[in-house]
Write a structure and sequence with these properties.
Layout: H1 15-57, E1 70-73, E2 86-92, E3 102-106, H2 107-110, E4 115-123, E5 126-133, E6 147-151, H3 153-159
Antiparallel strand pairs: 1-4, 2-3, 2-6, 4-5, 5-6
Amino acid sequence: MLRYSNKPPRQRQDEPAAKAIARQKAAVEVQRHLARCAKMFYCGMVVCLALRGIGSLLPQPGETAQVGDMLKLSEAVAVPGAPRAVVPARLVTGPWAKPGGVCGLDESVMLKPGGVLTTTAVRPDGVMLTWNGGATAQGAASCPSSSQLLISREDYQKLYKIEVPRPPMNPR
């Protein structure tokens, strides 16, 4: 059965017109790829800025101790070659109790089993911490796990690797 259509038969285009159409299609494809790349770049920038903003919102130990500051100690997060702090601590039974026995917080020993130091109170005589983890020092100097400890503010800064900015000296 024969079919008749209203479409005129296809005519071959001459070669310069075909080349111009091919160049135009290639230019359109390049523009599409550039637009996609630009969108991906801007999306990546938005994600980076969002992650940077979230990082600044997370609690970070500051120059002065605040309740809730946490320091996670493990070999995985330790900076190789960084000096390890050794800090004396006093055992305390409650947030406002007088200090009792002395024990030690040796960072190189605390890194092996891992654990978390949490700031529980800030007192005039120092900072109270709670250690949840393994041994804190070699032998009898080790603090018991889940115990309340009192350390000085200077020792807090050593343990949390905080460098307090010093005021500029005025040479005269």
